[in-house]
């Protein structure tokens, strides 16, 4: 079993609903146990045009080797209609492996920790929300990196939705009773 963190993002279609559905999809995998889900965040696109993004981070435990987890991420992205017309194109769903245990991987098609994790508020802020003490291999405590991304627009989304399943996954006591 390995603990991994996935970053979810979307800015095409009903992006908020897509992220909720994608978390349920992950939780339904026999090979995955979802341990925590961050709040939902609204964020500015970076190096791209298009609408604002919605982002969240999921902490999970999995029996999948990391490459199988990457393949599953691609399969789920595809199921949610992901297309790649050009780099940084708007997307119905992006599923990135932020961390996989304490492993560092540097291969052509898989880099872990995710290469942009430490530069992006949309990944760092929800990661620290669900695991305040998390350490990023080669970079140290994630919380110590928050200052360096404080110029990036990110706003926690508040919702009255009371979905019991997602609520149970929420690691954020301040938002108990909310699923986003
Ligand atoms: P983005 O980099 O904007 O997320 P894509 O989702 O299209 O763009 O991913 C491009 C490629 O990045 C994927 O085909 C995948 O092989 C590669 N990649 C490298 N490291 C990772 C990672 N940690 N998580 C997800 N994809 C990764
Ligand atoms: Mg991606």
The CATH topology comes to Alpha-Beta Plaits
Helix segment tally? 4
Task: Output mean pLDDT.
Answer: 91
Shape: globular
CATH architecture: 2-Layer Sandwich
Can you identify the CATH class?
Alpha Beta
CATH H-level superfamily = 7,8-Dihydro-6-hydroxymethylpterin-pyrophosphokinase HPPK
End-to-end separation in angstroms reads 27 Å
Residues in helix, % = 10-25%
How many beta strands in the DSSP annotation?
10
Element-by-element helix/strand order:
EHEEEHEEEHEEEH
Q: Could you walk me through the main structural features you see in this protein, from its secondary elements to its overall organization?
A:
The chain has 180 residues and is of the alpha+beta class. The protein has a single domain, classed as Alpha-Beta Plaits. Strands 1, 2, 3, 4, 5 and 10 form a six-stranded antiparallel β-sheet that branches. The protein has a two-stranded antiparallel ribbon with strand order 6-7. A hairpin with a 2-residue loop joins strand 6 and strand 7. It is globular, with a radius of gyration of 15 Å. It starts with a strand and ends in an 11-residue tail after the last helix. The C terminus is likely disordered. Magnesium ion (MG) binds next to strand 5.
Which properties best describe this structure?
transferase, single chain, binds adenosine-5'-diphosphate, 10 strands, nucleotide-binding, 24% helix, alpha+beta, 6-stranded antiparallel beta sheet, 180 residues, disordered C terminus, binds magnesium ion, two-stranded antiparallel sheet, 4 helices, Alpha-Beta Plaits
